Amino acid sequence: MNIFLHELRAYRKSTIIWTISLMVLVLFFMALFPSFTKDAEQVNELLKTLPEALRKAVGIEIGSFTSILGFYSYVFMYITLCGAIQAMMIGASILSKEVREKTVDFLLTKPVSRSTVIVSKLSAAFVSIAITSLFFVLWAYFIALYVRTDDFNEQAFFLLSFTLFFVQVMFLAIGVIASMLLPKLKSVLSISLGVVFAFFFIGMFGSTVGEASVRYITPFKYFDSMYIIKNSQYEWSYLIVGLMWVITALVASFFIYTKRDMDAV
Amino acid sequence: MNVIESNQLTKVYGKARGISNVTFSVREGEIFGFIGPNGAGKSTTIRTLLALIYPTSGSATIFGKDCIKHAPEIKKEIGYLPSEVFYYDNMKVIDLLKYSASFYKKDCTKRMKELADALNLDLSKKIDDLSLGNKKKVGIVQGLLHEPKLIILDEPTSGLDPLMQQKFFELLKEENKKGATILFSSHILSEVQKLCDRVAIIKEGEIVKVETMSALTENSYKKFRLETINEVSPDFFKLEGVTDITRKEKTLSFIYKGNINTIITKIAEIPLKNLWVEEPTLEEIFMHYYEKEE
């Protein structure tokens, strides 16, 4: 428990900054919504002039763009991008920073097992991103209530919004396993940005060519916003595959961490 | 009772470094020195005992329990101070120490304050702002605050000024008197000489010798230095027990181990100007071990 609290405190500042950034970002985008709906006709006309490939890549669907859920889902794509960076950075640093900052000798000569260490640290990382997601979703909901022009499907809204957390969990797991497979990891920021943007662009590319199998590759495409808005539910096959990836990555990390030699600095 | 028992402990790191078949034991209540130059395998042995790295073969027990299997339990009673201390930079000293104390299921506040006072450590500072010596003090306090039964020190004196070093040794002796066993690794022989009851000499990953400090320094070894009237060939003293013969013009010196009468008879054969017989320093004995092996 003490490790968990220590880690939570260590990530407090960055969690607050990320949460506030996401909140500001969604506020900024959603504030534009009223002006979009006012000129709905013109907006749709304008969007039609964009090449179809581009529209697909950035996730714009004509018609849906002027409804609050459609507009929100477009904005939300960039929110998950940022959330993914946050989660990947926590995941990649939570175990490796002790090695990099050489505090691992301190921690691992205390009367705790390595499994306690890794479980406590992962729990702290989960709680940090859960806090971010929770604050974001509630905030986004209030904004939506404020800027809406019509009633909207609140269940779909929440389902869509909480995919932030699921995408974050996947990137957290990717970050953790990356730091285990690359023990000499020097810069968490560069690898996090690199991996997250790579997946993001794979997702864009997949949408453009309409290749369904790409959806299993990138966490950004596990949750199709249009599907969620239409059906008010998740696509279970993706949710299960995603969960399996997360569990596999975390279990593998667990074994690597508990068996690893902590060499002298 | 033996507090530490290392049995054929081996760690293989590809081709270089590592330790092989390290066997020694540390008795309850003693201060055990572990000496050897840098890279000889002192840290590797200690890190294996602490389960920071896992042995390739062999095993070790601490308090009678396997040091890998029962690591978390054993560590309740171990205090460890590494040669280079690194702590969470953005924490205050007091917070770091409280975090450290939170791992032990007892109240360490009083002892923490005592130690900090004894070492003149300012608890309200940020670790980031501390000098190397002061960081070291944080290390000492966090290693001792839970009054461990076994204190493991890996080249602990680097970065401490002589005065603090003195203070630190006093603290260690105090803990030892209260019953703590100490494993002290160092490449500085004089500090081992000051503190330890027994020493293990380690070289290229293997234990060369385990001996009591008194056996190492007293009786058995003598350092002879003689100034002769005529030049004498070093070969003159080539006999059983004589090592490290060096000659500087008319001054000959060597280390002798054996029956004192034999050597005195030999010396009596040549005319002398002057003669010194001294206890060799540990340093000289140590070099002697190292050269003999080569």
Structure notes:
The complex is a heterodimer of chains A (265) and B (294). The model of chain A has no long low-confidence stretch (mean pLDDT 89). In chain A, helix 2 runs antiparallel to helix 6 (68-100). Chain A is 78% helix and 0% strand. Chain A is built from 13 helices and no strands. With 294 residues, chain B is an alpha/beta fold. Chain B folds into two domains: 2-213, P-loop containing nucleotide triphosphate hydrolases (Rossmann fold, 3-Layer(aba) Sandwich), CATH 3.40.50; 219-278, Alpha-Beta Plaits, CATH 3.30.70. Chain B is built from ten helices and 14 strands. In chain B, helix 4 (109-118) runs antiparallel to helix 5 (132-144). The longest helix of chain B has 16 residues, at 162-177. At the A-B interface, helix 1 and helix 7 of A face helix 1 and helix 2 of B.
Salient structural properties:
A: 265 residues; mainly alpha; 78% helix; elongated; B: Rossmann fold; Alpha-Beta Plaits; 2 domains; six-stranded mixed beta sheet; four-stranded antiparallel beta sheet; 14 strands
Number of distinct helices of chain A? 13
CATH class of the largest domain in chain B: Alpha Beta
- Give the low-confidence spans of chain B: none
Q: Rg of chain A, please?
A: 20 Å
**What number of domains of chain A?**
1
Short structural description:
Chain A is an all-alpha fold. Chain A contains 13 helices and no strands. In chain A, α9 (154-181) packs antiparallel against α12 (225-231).
